[in-house]
Amino acid sequence: MIKNYFRPKTIDELSELKLKTKGYLFSGGTDLFVKLRAGTIDTDTVIDTKYLNSRKIEITGNKLFIPINATYSELRMFIKQNNVNNMLENIVKTIGSPMIRNRGTPVGNISNASPAGDFVLASYLFNAQVIIEPTSRKLPVKNFIKGPGKIDLRENEFVYGIELEILNDYKFYFEKVGRRNAMIISIASLGLLLKEKDNKIKDIRIAFGSVAPYILRDENLEKSLIGETINEELFKHIAIEYQKLSSPITDVRATKEYRKSLVHNLVIKAYNNLFEKVVKE
Amino acid sequence: MIIKFKLNGKEIVKDVPVHKRALDFLRDDLGVLSIKEGCGEGECGACTILVDGKNIHSCLMLAVELDGKEVLTVEGLKDKTIQNAFVEAGAIQCGFCTPGFIISTKALLNENKNPSSEEIKEALEGNLCRCTGYLKIEEAVKLAVKMYNKGSDKK
Ligand SMILES: Cc1cc2nc3c(=O)[nH]c(=O)nc-3n(C[C@H](O)[C@H](O)[C@H](O)COP(=O)(O)OP(=O)(O)OC[C@H]3O[C@@H](n4cnc5c(N)ncnc54)[C@H](O)[C@@H]3O)c2cc1C
Ligand code: FES
Ligand code: FES
């Protein structure tokens, strides 16, 4: 049961409290309070980060900075108003429900480090850097997340923000396969970013959620695709390669065989959608 | 911890235990009976309240987090248009979910005076109803929009 509740205002105060009390940080609480209730986390101390004086969502150079405590709803508004990384909207609008988006945060999502986390997937696609205080460490999200629920954070450290690349002129496809329309905890998800020139691939980024213990993205495979002509054959090749790379599990939501076939079919579906062919279900 | 906030326009100062959820504090200690506990984990929307104009789940919030905020529940709605529209459209059966739907509708209409079907569906996707079905609820929101527009025509 929670016995102590703190509201630090500065980075140092927050860091000292975390070190001293070993309490859990929270912003939206949409992961933490669910886990406390389920008993998968037990703590007597929670640290509310919402009183921290921090930077706001901002564009710095060619980066989009998303600070601690910025909610999905705030991010959505910012993207729209500033016409930046509009592709993110397609991911963010599928997260939870309006109530979850009014409270939940991208920083909470990556700190929670679920392989089904939608903002974790977004962070992989946009080559995000995770900014950590009070040490001012900065590391790529793929190094920050070490496994399901495991992150590279020392006892005095916390996530201060996430920095995403700003991408222009990319084609984008995102799909989350789940059981219901709202509040999907996905069975599998795919995000794909593609830049083309003369019908050839200039840059491609492909990431899958929920089909491995981590977000599945293979940068070597992506590199091998650069310069290739965009056609159905190529995407069939991509689909088969990722199917091989995926290592899904069977759980109450889906079997591993089903998830494997989803990996394949989602890639083909992305191709059909992006290149305006008739969508085969 | 002593907190100070506004509930339905009224200033409240109270000492609350830090472990208490906003839902339990509002319902059990302050008698706000419109908010209900369905699932207790952010899935059903029966506990929805409006905090500083945004709809959120009171089951996933601590009472101490209400400090300094403005909270609105169905009890505090002076304008009954949305409620009337729900009644008229037959969008209520047992009524358990209704306050949550009304608060989410209020949040939507605060920001969007003329929502499309798509926007209505998105705004209400976090509220579950096990009796009525969502068609009548969507109709109720459209009716509320119509009633508001008629009201403003007269002025
Ligand atoms: C009904 C429902 C639907 C949901 N739907 C989705 C969905 O569709 N997609 C999805 O990806 N997620 C979903 N979620 C999960 C959750 O809403 C998201 O992961 C959200 O982004 C968490 O953000 P938060 O601010 O609420 O995190 P919190 O609960 O506040 O924190 C999450 C975790 O990170 C730690 N933490 C928080 N802040 C920091 C920090 N600054 N530094 C270090 N550690 C920190 C906390 O101790 C906690 O363990 C859903 C949850 C619910 C209840
Ligand atoms: S009781 Fe809060 S969402 Fe169900
Ligand atoms: S009217 Fe009964 S749950 Fe909606």
What does this structure look like?
The complex is a heterodimer of chains A (about 280) and B (about 160). In chain A, about 35% of the residues lie in helices and about 25% in strands. Chain A has about 280 residues and is of the alpha+beta class. Chain A folds into three domains: about 50 residues, Uridine Diphospho-n-acetylenolpyruvylglucosamine Reductase, domain 2 (2-Layer Sandwich), CATH 3.30.43; about 110 residues, Uridine Diphospho-n-acetylenolpyruvylglucosamine Reductase, domain 3 (2-Layer Sandwich); about 110 residues, CO dehydrogenase flavoprotein, C-terminal domain (Enolase-like, domain 1), CATH 3.30.390. In chain A, strands 4-5-10-6-7 form a five-stranded antiparallel sheet. In chain A, β6 and β7 form a beta hairpin. Chain A is globular, with a radius of gyration of 19 Å. Chain A starts with a strand and ends in a 7-residue tail after the last helix. The model of chain A has no long low-confidence stretch (mean pLDDT about 95). Chain B is globular. The mean pLDDT of chain B is about 95. The termini of chain B are far apart. Chain B has about 160 residues and is an alpha+beta fold. Chain B is built from five helices and five strands. The longest helix of chain B has 21 residues. In chain B, α2 packs across α5. Chain B folds into two domains: about 80 residues, Beta-grasp domain (Ubiquitin-like (UB roll)); about 70 residues, DNA polymerase, domain 1, CATH 1.10.150. In chain B, strands 2-1-5-3-4 form a five-stranded mixed sheet, covered by helices on one side. In chain B, about 45% of the residues are buried. At the A-B interface, α2 and α5 of A face β4 of B. One FE2/S2 (inorganic) cluster (FES) binds next to loops of chain B.
